[in-house]
Design a protein that fits this description.
Elements (H helix, E strand, L loop, with lengths): L4 E8 L3 E4 L12 H10 L5 E5 H12 L10 H7 L3 E4 L12 E4 L3 H11 L4 E4 L2 H9 L5 E7 L7 E4 L7 E11 L3 E10 L2
Parallel strand pairs: 1-6, 1-7, 3-4, 3-6, 4-5
Antiparallel strand pairs: 2-8, 7-10, 9-10
Length: 192
């Protein structure tokens, strides 16, 4: 049996993974229910999978933050302490991550092996271009979109599905957090 792989991503309503301007983390919309739910999700045993760009962004963000900052939410601290695989052809070790393994090569090949060998589920938070390639290769079992109630048309960064293949999505779970944030979990199927 192969390990399940979840592509976990935060999104504005217009499909951006982040925003510039005066937006803060979570677009300033996080609440206690979202943070507790994220902590519970990351309390389950799993292995994180990151591409080089997302790894660099997380490592830099965490290196410049303090224990009291919003960046160090308990779920983020827990994520950082999980075993992780960083897929890159450009990074060199050692990595500034407690239990990370750097694997050079094509993400599709690396994740195919991980799915066959891992005894625990795999999860990737962010890593947009890598996860678009993994979806096209049929390796993503679930797409978990946490949808924040904002439109970032002028300041949006990192269009999540720009350049992705076409997919049919089967909604397998949904919930509302803090009365205004939607978590939608889909099973993707390549649309032919």
């Amino acid at each position: 049996m192969t390990a399940a792989y979840t592509f976990d991503v935060f999104s504005s309503l217009d499909g951006f993974g982040a925003a510039g301007g005066n937006w803060t983390g979570y677009w300033g919309k996080q609440g206690p229910e979202l943070l507790a739910h994220r902590l519970a999700q990351y309390g389950e045993e799993q292995r994180m999978v990151f591409g080089a760009n997302t790894y660099r962004a997380f490592a830099q963000m965490l290196a410049t933050s303090t224990e009291e900052s919003d960046v160090r939410d308990p779920w983020v601290t827990r994520m950082r302490n999980m075993p992780a695989t960083v897929v890159s052809t450009t990074l060199e070790g050692p990595l500034d991550w407690p239990d990370a393994t750097l694997v050079s090569g094509d993400a599709v090949d690396v994740v195919t092996r991980l799915k066959e060998e891992s005894a625990v589920p795999l999860r990737s938070h962010g890593s947009l271009s890598m996860n678009r390639a993994l979806m096209a290769a049929g390796l993503v079992d679930q797409v978990q979109v946490t949808l924040f109630p904002v439109i970032t048309g002028r300041t949006g960064l990192d269009p999540i599905f720009q350049g992705a293949a076409d997919f049919d999505l089967e909604l397998i779970e949904s919930r509302t957090l803090d009365g205004h944030i939607q978590e939608l979990i889909y099973r993707p199927t390549l649309h032919v």
